[in-house]
Amino acid sequence: MPAVIETDVKKMQKCIDLCNRCMQVCEECLTSCLKEPDAQARMKCIQTLRDCADICSLAAQFMARGSAFAKQICGLCAEICEACATECDMFQDNHCKQCADICRQCAQECRNMVNM
Amino acid sequence: MPAVIETDVKKMQKCIDLCNRCMQVCEECLTSCLKEPDAQARMKCIQTLRDCADICSLAAQFMARGSAFAKQICGLCAEICEACATECDMFQDNHCKQCADICRQCAQECRNMVNM
Amino acid sequence: MPAVIETDVKKMQKCIDLCNRCMQVCEECLTSCLKEPDAQARMKCIQTLRDCADICSLAAQFMARGSAFAKQICGLCAEICEACATECDMFQDNHCKQCADICRQCAQECRNMVNM
Amino acid sequence: MPAVIETDVKKMQKCIDLCNRCMQVCEECLTSCLKEPDAQARMKCIQTLRDCADICSLAAQFMARGSAFAKQICGLCAEICEACATECDMFQDNHCKQCADICRQCAQECRNMVNM
Q1: Which InterPro entries does the entry link to (chains A, B, C, D) (predicted)?
Q2: Higher per-residue confidence, A74 vs D10
């Protein structure tokens, strides 16, 4: 059924785009967190941002290549994105608020990939 | 001068977006090349696509984090993108033609970053 | 109990070392497969080698940084290593035989990490 | 001349091993820096450690696959390793001292690769 296939391609493209966006926002947020006066209190947040940027980047690559493991890496990516959103939600600055929002959107798209 | 700064931010965003796009197109083209009946004749093309996808991915991450080495990695990325375009130009299928085109655009934006 | 902690550190170091080794052997095997006269018949093997090299590389990085998600990425790494060993076992050349062997060792160490 | 070839293979293996080692030590040092009471003063050090771990990881992958761009990425890797050593030298703790030492060794081996 071509209609279904087209839908799947669009779903995957949406997920790739969000993984790329989430990678960028996590990298930006990490750099911003390092500059905050309470950088030391953000240790766990910074560590989670690092993991999240890296797994989003590799998930986008796996999807782009049509990997047989795209769903599995998206499952792990969703889990790390959720953890990252939880960490970022603990801080009041704009970069953390925006990052938490994008992480949640990315987690949702990754779960959609898993269930495709 | 805020106007200049805004221009630089936009230039870098354009470069990040093209690196992400080039990563995706190279991964897709690599997978398509492996499925072609003349896969063995595409050895050098496939190897260059692999390098190009990986360096584009890391260049996007370096730019996103505001790395002090963003220009240097963009310089290397431009070089690999040009080589990849040259390899892809040797084949007549649509995925190679499209990939060569995106690689050249990405190389140009990476050079713009280097000269920023 | 320091003895237990030391054991865990040693286990993780063994797993990092095997992930690095497996990354290298998969990259070498992929390049060798591209040069074989039956490269086209190795499509699935080459694609799995690509995924395996990348996940081994990121798993080593997650373990090195003491990531909260080290066990999860090792779980996925074990799964991809096993799939890669199965693919490589289908070919008779030395690089595939050696790669299958290292992939199985790496899968085992990754499972040890998961159960730590 | 097989003797020369063997020497080159050994040189590259030494460089791959040091890149893997440097990736690990940088990741460990970054995590340790985040836990230090003066984490905020280490911002530039942490950012350089992040870049260094990532470029070492990709340089090892490029060498392992016999990339045509192995020398170029090793050239950039040497530059980032030197910068990382300089940053780490500013701090007195053992993890920074050890990291600076490994970064310098890795930079030297990467330069050897460039001149091979």
Answers
A1: Csp_YhjQ, YHJQ-like
A2: A74
Rounded Cα distance, D62 and B19, in Å: 18
Does residue C1 carry a pLDDT above 50? no
Cα D83 to Cα A31: distance, rounded to the nearest angstrom: 18
List chains touching B (3+ CB pairs under 8 A). Answer: A, C, D
Query: Cα C85–C86–C87 angle (5° rounding)?
Result: 90
Nearest chain D Cα distance for residue B67, angstroms: 7
- In order of their start, the domains of chain C are 17-32+42-114 (1.20.1270.360)
C-beta separation of B49 from B55 below 8 A: no
CA dihedral A46, A19, B25, B33 (to 10 degrees): 100
Q: What ipTM goes with this model?
A: 0.93
Q: Could you tell me which chains touch chain C, where touching means 3 or more CB pairs under 8 A?
A: A, B, D
Q: Is the pLDDT of residue B1 over 50?
A: no
Cβ A27 vs Cβ B58: under 8 Å: no
The predicted-structure confidence for C58-69, as pLDDT tens digits, reads as follows: 999 999 999 999
Structure tokens at D31: 């995590």
HSE-up of A78 (CA within 13 Å, CB side)?
Answer: 16
Give the containing element (helix H, strand E) for D29: helix D2-35
The whole-angstrom separation of Cα D113 and Cα B104 is: 28
B7-18 as b/e: b if 16+ CB within 10 A: eeeeebeebbbb
Residue B3 predicted with pLDDT over 90: no
- Are A55 and A95 in contact by the 8 Å Cβ rule? The answer is no
**Residues of chain B contacting residue A66, judged by C-beta atoms under 8 Å apart:** 28, 31
Of D18, D14, D32, D35, nearest in space to D97 by CA: D32
Establish how many alpha carbons lie within 13 A of residue D20's alpha carbon, considering only the half-sphere containing its beta carbon: 27
Residue type, A95: H
Asked if B47's CB is within 8 angstroms of D69's CB, the reply is no
